[in-house]
Structure of protein-glutamate O-methyltransferase:
Amino acid sequence: MDTFGLIQLAELIYEYCGIDFFKNLSSLESKISERLKELGLSCWEYGGYLRVEPKEWDTLIDLITVNETYFFREENLLEEFQKVILPKYKDRTPNNPLRIWSSACSSGEEPYTLAILSEETGLFETGAVEIIASDIDKKVLEKARRGLYNKKSFSFRTMPKEILDKYFISFGDDYKVKDSIRAMVDFRRVNLLDENKLEKVGEVDIVFCRNVLIYFDTKAINKVINSLYKVLRAGGYLFLGHAETITGMNTGFETIYTPSAFYYRKGERH
């Protein structure tokens, strides 16, 4: 193992996107070993290559991020979102839409799920819900925009059949998300550590940032949560993954506990 080269690369990755490999250099090595062979570079040389070939970051991000996701993931949380949170915004119109941000959308299953759940409430007219979906990985964003998912894929593991029939079209070996749902989602490339990009998202009412913070250290988590606090409107809601918590971190968010889920509401900072 080229420990010095791996540490240098881990530092570059941390500065770029906040993912922390310092305690797991062997994992980083296994993720990039094939790419290094392809380029004929050592780990140390690869750090230099990233500086002169910034487009290589797209390839590296694709290698080091885990993009395993599926429709209707964490059903208890989604039920709370649909039955408790969405009705609070039922007066929204196309001129003043409800803005929901899926901030680590991967291949699109989460934002399309949120769009379907919004439609299923029957509370909103066309154009009254706007979903911004972002990820740092260009490759998965391209897949998400297409809205095509293999019929045998992991994506549909918890998909209710009536939802599948209503919002998807059979398309050869794939199911395709219907255009009415795709039109609700605006896909963008966003690095959660880049404050300038986050500002361009604009003010939002609800943020989903699930299964992202597990890759960050405390410093990066604080930076991301602080940025999400800024873009959320007063009283807005933040949903994290079930294994993630910011309770006790003095972030300005208050924790809401229900019998089956917990999430956060933007409060006042003291």
User: Anything to note?
Assistant: The mean pLDDT is 91. The beta strands are 98-102, 129-135, 148-150, 168-171, 174-177, 185-189, 204-209, 232-240, 253-257, 262-266. The CA atoms of residues 205 and 236 lie 5 Å apart.
